[in-house]
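My hope is that you will study the record closing this message with an eye to the fold:
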Amino acid sequence: MSGPVLLLAALLVPATTALGVALFAARPNLREAVTLLGAATLFLVTVLIARDVFSGGRPELVLAEPFPGVALALAVEPLGMLFALVASTLWIANSVYSIGYMRGNDEKRQTGFYVCFAIALFATMGLAYSKNLLTLFLFYELLTFSTYPLVTHKRDQKAIAAGRVYLLILVSASMLFLLPAILLTGLAAGTFDFRPGGILADRIAPWMAPVLLGFFVFGAAKAAVMPLHRWLPAAMVAPTPVSALLHAVAVVKAGVFVVLKVVLDVFGLDYLEATGAADWLVFVAAFTVVAASVVALFQDDLKRRLAYSTIGQLGYVVLAAALATPASTLGGALHIAAHGVSKITLFFAAGAIYTAAHRTKVSQLDGIGRRMPVTMAAFTLGVLSMIGLPPTIGFASKWFMIGGAVSAGSAVAVAAIVASTVLNALYLLPIVWRAYARPATGPEHGEAPWPAVAALAATGIGTVLLFLFPAVPYELARMAVEARP
């Protein structure tokens, strides 16, 4: 199967999955079978595209040309390939988990949930494979609007309020900052196409580069750089599979993917290093990393603690991009995979605890490790990865990021990474300690439904397997960083 055909399939599979789910709305077993088949098929298509990339192929596909010389087009490159692999792999895990969670909690509007989830994956694939800034913007916005019904899934007052915050921040940021940045870049560079090494060198005045970079970073508010982060903890009112989508599969990854993509293929590492245009971003990202970790310390609600953890972890990727060194940027790209598999494990565990024990607070988790041993074992692996300890993939990505900070001579970045690592341990390890060291309280219960437990066990083991066998994400990250015109 040719590269362009595979690219088209990467869009058609989630789109037809959404249609199939809707057609079988009255038959839950078939509806969920379609979801699982769609997720598995997309993963297979993504693996075939990745095989082509590792062989040196770079397939392209023009979707439409609304204006002469301005095309909506797809093109595969290593960073987008990494993002697509993470999203398609985790869609399988999330689909299996969702069956146990949604049925176990007797959630309403399950068909709409699966439809919107598939559309979100359609948008994610388009975003990952975007050939130019205009295509990226189109799919970035589609991702926002396709996930809004998921954030407001419960349709109660809290969910509707959270949805307003979600749309207000994300849409306002993209319209006020991201779209103008894209248009200014096109005018200055004479093209909207991404190019390894960047397209802006010698095309804009030196004073404008940090301003334009700021428009891109804050315009991509899905990266949750402070102060445009409040949508993320607000969205925790959604069901846990939605939280997993927001934090691990697609949404926040879309934000940091845009930041890395712009740094590598719009500005270019050499240009940023030569001009110092990203120096200011080091301080903003470092503040986000540390401040979010401090706030997480004081959150008793488990999902909100994990939400602020995500803000800090995203800050690592932005910080790595701001340092503009090959090592740090490689670590930032690798952290897309590391954070994805680690954070989805933590949210899966939180949802399993809610389903089996109806507990949502950290202070309610005494002794739960003895009642839910599989869930808490996976949670512990996720915790180790978030802190950055071996034998988990979080150690590898953090190793490259701190190495890049040292090579860049940035004491601020080194201090932020070290301080946040300590803070990560302080707000995550007490959860594990409570689960195992304190006596259990409340009514007896066991594990959540088996699909949820199977999914979280798989992703928990995945944090270790990626540490032991990191070749695929590492090579894609390396190729993305080392690509030159």
About this structure: The two ends are 28 Å apart (CA to CA). The chain is about 75% helix and 5% strand.
